[in-house]
Design goal:
The protein has 11 helices and 5 strands. The protein has helices at 3-25, 28-44, 55-70, 81-90, 97-105, 111-118, 122-137, 151-163, 175-184, 202-213, 246-256, and strands at 143-147, 167-172, 189-192, 218-222, 239-241.
Amino acid sequence: MTAADLAQSIGRELPFLRRYARALTGSQTAGDNYAAATLEAILTDRSVLEGEDDIRIGLFRTFHVIWQSSGQPVEDHDLSSRERRAQDHLRGLTPNSREALLLRTIEELRPDQIARVMQVEPSEAEELVQIALNEMGSAIRGKVMVIEDEMIIAMDLKGIVQAMGHEVTGVARTHAAAIDLAGKHRPDLILADIQLADGSSGVDAVNELLRDMGEIPVIFITAFPERLLTGERPEPAFLISKPYSEEQVRSAVSQAMFFASTEGLEA
């Protein structure tokens, strides 16, 4: 593969590496720093990709080598008090389980692919995913607001969240309805689409809520992830593409309850 072809292939996968890194660290700044270090390692020595035909897997594997060697997922000075508490809790989880969970549910890698990224056996990768789901799913309970204009999807999300033991404060189909609902019942977590029923923006609604209410973790669930994964403005740490799976939602909800990655977004 020529250098130009390699650069093009990596460019296609980079938004997803950055998404994964942000979800893993709970911080856009920290996640992007790890992604940048990964690119630098590849540019310095292309041999780090040897033995892997899938550029995406090779990219994520290189990231993991750097991640494991760093020893610390996030610099404390880059964290809010809520993020710091989240990191304190996450350090108590079984080693490598959170990484395996995100690779499986957010990036939708198969167990054999996770094994190649993390350089473990596929059976160990599967076990780590299940451990993380069990440990994180039982850790925190809270109030969740759903911003979604498609009622079938909204009811499905509500059912998943309630089955996890969380309370759903309600479903909003428009920007105005979201602001009204949050005013009546302050949520601990927001699940939001970016395109709402009346043409309004879920991103605008979330921005207004965060300005008024402060730190609230947010998960965007959208058919248009490319609208947020641009690298040109602050992006959400938790972004799920439609069609989603129950496993993805459960993972993201558990993760987001730990992190307050709610930097403002521009519409």
